[in-house]
Design brief:
The chain is an alpha+beta fold and 184 residues long. The protein contains seven helices and four strands; from the N terminus they run ααααααββαββ. It has a four-stranded antiparallel β-sheet with strand order 1-2-4-3. The model has no long low-confidence stretch (mean pLDDT 95).
Length: 184
């Protein structure tokens, strides 16, 4: 996995918790390199999983909740790190539609050894389905990323995770206008 994803995980822990918690997570994970990851380097994704596991122990929060929060935060970090990939987009649906064919493709040009997940988007009228698939078990991070972009573009859409999708290597997210309860 590209170092950027793991380096940003360390940064998120520092910001969302504290630098002391980030240090404790690195020590508890027992990883080589003391938590130093370069953006362009490639590392086992199990390093990120070990850190999430250690953070879950320390914070007493479920890994799924932590991974989702990390994904949500990462959505805005990608905008700071790769601003050119966001040029010309004004809504989340169009942006999400282009992740597989454009953004992740750009990522593999930037980092030829990257192995991005498959993000297949099917648009049906006003609804879309975002399907994540990867050899890495990061469906919760994907969920957070989808939520993050919808909030960023300010679209009035809700994200519902299909309870029938197998996870954590695959998941389906239904993105649609929130159902309104009619009154009166
Ligand atoms: C312009 C926007 C995006 C950029 C710049 C970007 C960039 C990246 C990069 C650099 C990686 C690391 C690949 C590797 O380690 O080999 C990655 C992985 C990943 N991306 Fe994206 N991504 C974007 C949008 C999205 C969106 C919208 C989703 C969710 C629907 C998503 C889901 C993921 C996940 C979950 C991973 C972790 C690796 C895995 O699960 O296999 N990405 N992305």
């Amino acid at each position: 996995m590209k170092g950027v994803i793991i380096a940003e995980l360390v940064r998120w822990i520092e910001e969302a918790f504290s630098p002391a918690v980030a240090d404790a997570v690195i020590v508890r994970s027992g990883l080589p390199g003391n938590g130093v990851y370069t953006t362009v380097g490639n590392y086992p994704h199990t390093d990120a999983l070990a850190m999430m596991g250690a953070l879950a122990d320390i914070s007493r929060q479920p890994i799924a909740v932590l991974a989702d929060s990390y994904g949500y935060w990462l959505a805005s970090r990608f905008m700071e790190l790769y601003p050119e990939m966001f040029e010309g987009y004004t809504d989340a649906v169009t942006f999400l539609r282009d992740v597989d064919g454009q953004h992740h493709r750009e990522v593999t040009k930037l980092y030829p050894d990257a192995r991005t997940p498959s993000i297949v988007v099917v648009i049906d009228g006003e609804e879309l389905t975002v399907s994540y698939g990867s050899h890495r078990p990061l469906a919760d991070v994907a969920h957070g990323l989808v939520r993050g972009y919808i909030d960023y573009y300010g679209d009035d859409l809700e994200v519902i995770r299909d309870p029938g999708s197998p996870g954590p290597h695959a998941a389906r997210f239904l993105v649609r206008k929130p159902a309104r309860v009619l009154s009166g």
